[in-house]
């Protein structure tokens, strides 16, 4: 792997920690500051809303300015989120906490483009492995985010979580320095060619392959976020577990999200993307069954570990499959649309998690995921059926287009 990929791994470990940071304390601090319990997960949900709102502007800016300047801007957004969180902790104003979550999402929208930058820095045959390597940076984020989140969670804190948000600001500054020094735009293998025309997005989305790719990432992210967002609240408010227990579960869950990236590229070559996606769906189904069967610490732990593994197989599979469905000069349009759909689904899931948990409880919440798993399975099977039909009609293989 070239240096750019490893720089992106390090930057991902630092910049991505905003997500687990807010997952661990967002709903807890939100419950303390919000006027109604149904609003407790709103700061977490607004992280994803911010991501959705910033995806298209981020890809537009990358198309015009290049990837590196926008990556640096993303870390500045992360630093701003940390500053707003400090202000929210100091003043106790719920709306400022929500704004911190949204601005954090602006920065994460840029971080999610790191995987495409890595894929464009290597030869096509290494694209899936490059994307998986960058996702490995999430292992660092899985440990670092929750650790700094609990810095200011002690019972003697005058301003709860203030020092936690200060820690987030410092970590984002480190990500800025890492990208500024280490990433070199001139080493990107794929450069944007300004070609007029191109297929309408409607035509691109008509491809069963593209729909399967987007569905794997969108449904995978939505189900994962839906269950994960409610987990700290369920563990501490309903099941009586400590914040440290919830932190440990979230940390190990995020490790399970990213650790399979060590072998994801190899798995795609050995068993193929369709089987990899189906394995991800199976892991999700086992997660639902386990989570619905009890509320002990180990029920939460093993359910969230399965949730992380399922997410990795679906997200890496969808990310690796998507470039087969567009041409080089269509990449920013399709990548932007893909991430809007992915994080729009995640935003809906995050924002609804608190209300669904209040209405249906933990067991009811996890069962809501089942119909979406069936939908993704149908998309994968439809893609496979279309692929087999094309190979039958045109011996020699079907093209992604």
Please explain how this structure is put together:
The chain is mainly α. The radius of gyration is 20 Å and the shape is globular. The longest helix is centred in the C-terminal third of the chain and has 37 residues, at 331-367. The relative contact order is 0.15. It is 79% helix and 0% strand. Keywords: Membrane, Transmembrane, Transmembrane helix.
Based on the model shown, name its key terms.
16 helices, about 400 residues
Q: Could you give the count of β-strands? A: 0
Instruction: List SSEs in N-to-C order.
Output: HHHHHHHHHHHHHHHH
Provide the helix percentage: over 70%
Number of helices: 16
Assess the beta-strand content as a share of residues: under 5%
Using the alpha-carbon principal axes, give the shape: globular
Q: Which helices and strands occur, and which strands form pairs?
A:
Elements: H1 3-15, H2 18-33, H3 42-65, H4 67-91, H5 94-111, H6 114-119, H7 127-149, H8 162-182, H9 201-205, H10 208-238, H11 243-258, H12 261-271, H13 273-292, H14 297-321, H15 331-367, H16 370-393
Concise overview:
The chain is an all-alpha fold and 401 residues long.
